[in-house]
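W.,

You were right to be curious about this one. When I first looked at the sequence I had no strong expectations either way, so I just let the prediction run and decided to look at it fresh. Below is the sequence, 99 residues in total, followed by the output.
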Amino acid sequence: MEIAVVGKSEFVVGFRLAGIHKTYEVKNDKDLESKIRECLTDRNLGIIVLHSDDLKHISPGLQKVIDESVEPTFIAIGSKEDAGLRDKIKRAIGVDLWK
């Protein structure tokens, strides 16, 4: 399984420098949704990283798909902490790491 990062260039550049090969730069909200949907169909991806601010710019239907997706698992990082990360990890691996 691979990790992918989707977002604006200033967000993905650090991941690229850290060795993540599947980084996708998007220029607008339409490109963001399109790239997320493309990543959902890639069977080699296990984790997809997004900036938490970008989640505000996608449609409610796609947000629901992201929230319910176990494989690939979506992780939103950035300006605010993702309270659902604990639940996503628990669903993905079946263990609560915080206990």
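Here's what jumped out at me. The two ends are 26 Å apart (CA to CA). And, maybe more interesting for your project: The chain has a mean pLDDT of 86.

Coffee later to discuss?

I.
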